[in-house]
Amino acid sequence: MAERATIETGDSDVLIVVDVQVDFLPGGALAVPDGDAVIAPINRLAKAFRHVVLTQDWHPEGHASFASSHPARQPFETTELHYGQQVLWPDHCIQGTPGAEISRDLDIPHAQLVIRKGYNAGIDSYSGFKEADRRTSTGLAGYLKERGFRRIFCAGLALDFCVAWTALDAAEAGFETCLIEDASRAIDTNGSLEKARRDLEAAGVRTIMSEWIVGA
Ligand code: VGL
Ligand code: ZN
What we know:
- The protein has 216 residues and is of the alpha/beta class.
């Protein structure tokens, strides 16, 4: 049998479930390939954590990250916004629409917080911690620190955008951080997955499998 780590979770651990929303699932406006495959492992994982936080991508209509907000631009092209490079997306996760809802197939009644992000019209926010201008905070790091958490586990959609950026910011904020590979799926556009893996490794984010976690 292959050797594998055994991770016991406790009171100083929190699972962050990133953007498991209708628009990122099959049939959604920005469907992540095989995105619904994250739901079963996340539901199992959540039972092994006393503390779970959800993130929710939550854009106003006409958001700067939408290709439709830029004349003659197409989804998955890149443009320059005031804070730097921005991938342009199909309209997705518009506040109050069915596509922005967190999947009803998630079974995490004990989740303690839903943190919304991407609500500023001119700034995207892949990360649950800090917007894409790299300055505007969502307040999540303060919340998690005030509650005394020390270790963060990230899973969800999409591995190469919101999961990766959330994990990178968690590490930068001083948390020991793991990304749960089999409970995440990637968009993988223009080398984004390879770049995310490089950035995660450089930041000391550990990539793990959900079966390494006791009780998951
Ligand atoms: C995401 C692209 C745009 C994500 C959100 O959840 O990974 N990706 N908005
Ligand atoms: Zn978005």
